[in-house]
Amino acid sequence: MKVARLAVLGVAVVAGFLAWRLAGNMGAPEAPVVVRQDVETDQVLVANRDIDPGAVVTAADLTWEAWPKDSINNAFIRRSSDPNAMDKVPGAVARTSFFSGEPIRNTKLVRSGAGGYLSAVLPQGMRAVATKTSPQTGAGGFILPNDRVDVVLTRQEQSGRNASRETYVSETVLENVRVLAIDQTVEEKDGRMVEVGNVATLELRPEQVEVLALAEQLGDISLALRSIMDGGSDEVAPLEPDGLVAGKRGSVNVVKFGVPNQVNTN
Fold first, then answer.
1. Which end of the chain is less packed: N or C, by CB atoms within 10 Å?
2. Domains and CATH numbers, the chain
């Protein structure tokens, strides 16, 4: 009798243990199955930091970043198709802003010599105005882009009391003006120290544009090259347009047909 009871008890214990294990396995979550899928990538040129509109892009602003090939836009610069882009992009000007991590696109850049470059580098609120120049009126051709100059007007006046007497007046109408370009050259290249051109493009405020336009109608314009030591970045207010008619900045003697005449310059 004891043996039968012990056998029944043993079977019950084993059945309970099996039931407990079965219940535990049913409640346990299944282990996730990890499927590794290789994604084909290519490196894209992106902004290493924020780039403001009008800023000149440097090598420190750029970096290569791996992107899935399926997510790469055709406008992005790929390392596989343009491995030298890191050397070619620096020096370009940003038309619009770039955010850190944003892919670089050529449509948002403008390079020297291309259309739109001058408007991209022109500071906000300033204007680019061209004026005729020559070796005689442009410091002998030694004016380069980014130099600073004074604009001098020389004009002729007729004396009311003596019609045969001519008075020549010379006055500085604009001071400390930055030269943006000489002809089509907007930057010094190949170590050139002299740039002889027919047209100088100046960076002016709107009110200075009016002064220069009036001065060109009144007489001859000359550009006086300023020293790099006193060029600075401070801009001197231009003369008022009315002051161009009345201003006199000195005098010299001019002989015409053997008759000496005094020319005001002060």
1. N
2. 41-119 (3.90.1210.10), 125-265 (no CATH)
